[in-house]
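Bit of a strange request maybe. I'm writing a small parser for structure token strings and I need a real example to test against, not something I typed by hand. Could someone generate the tokens for this chain?
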Amino acid sequence: MTTNLTQHFLLDPEVVFLNHGSFGACPRPVFEDYQRWQLKLERQPVEFLDSRRGLAANLRVARTALAAELGTDADSLAQVTNATTGLNIALQSLPLKPGDEILTTNHEYSALEKTLLFIARRTGAKIVTVEIALPLNSAEAFHDAVLAGFTDRTRLLFLSHITSPTALLFPIERLVAEARQRGIWSVIDGAHTPGHIPLDLDALGADFYSGNCHKWLMSPKGSAFLHVRPEWQAMIDPLVISHGWTADNKEPGVRGPFGASAFVDEVEMQGTRDPSPWLAVPSALAFRRDHDWWQVAAECSRLAQETAARVRDLFGLPALSAPSLSAPQMVAMPIPPCDPIAVHDALLRDYGIEIPVFEWQGHHIARLSCQGYNTREQMDLLVKALGELLGLEQPRRKLGQA
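Reply from user aminoacidic:
Good idea to test on real output. This should exercise your parser:
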């Protein structure tokens, strides 16, 4: 990379951090703004948390800034702690019935697979899981595989925009449009998407979309959003009934008790909690603008893809997808069969490398994330370490095995 911004981050210099995709890393000036909000809270908690005296207005500022970044209206965007929470709000609000079908894929995040199972057991709906075969080399292959799963009983389409285990960028746009044409709700898991690829929520047209700000957008941990199209906001019920709840009409244009849309107030105003991560989102957006982060991201993408190609050459294993269908800055790299926990621990213990290593549906994977604080020298170390741990020369001894 021609640009390295390590000095702006708080990461341990003794660790080669290649796992931005799990929890992100917050830049120093954004973290300082987060702490400024926390200090303000502690200095006068009543004033800070009183919606009449400032909280509602502060939340609105953050929501408006994020909405502009994501191509939508602030009254269709509510802050939540993480994407799993946002998706649970959407999924648990849908009036599914016995015999309804939930169409999804075999690449979804495990927490949301459990959520879908919970919904199915509670409502009597049936989960239909489409297998997206690997390697995935064309958008048409993905589109056709999911489209073949639609039936006259399909009521809900649940897809990841960027998958967690396989780091695939699913081309979901045509399927979202197809679902709308058929009267099927679309719920999109965008946990890895904001800040990773440009996102225009209104143009995409998904009925429900939840994403994290604390991953690739680099805001503090605990900042995420739920986006709901206006026509479905009246259907949304928060997971917690608290001060923001209203029994009145929640149709578009109706204000909630704290001045936002009724949908936003119900989701956001849920008793005492620290909103500082969310209030620091504008600072994260400003940091990205100040450092031309889409250019930084493009450099990171090149470095990630080049490193994945080196690992493929090292082990002679095919890629899991065409480059165009891989998440730009996050690549699931196939590695030889191994004990993934042992490999992960050896990478951290012997090389200081933090990277997820796991087995997924018969594939052994090291998932590389590349962000502005990473360097080519770190990629060299990763390739060297994987070669030493998983190469043909005494791999068992190198992993500490007998």
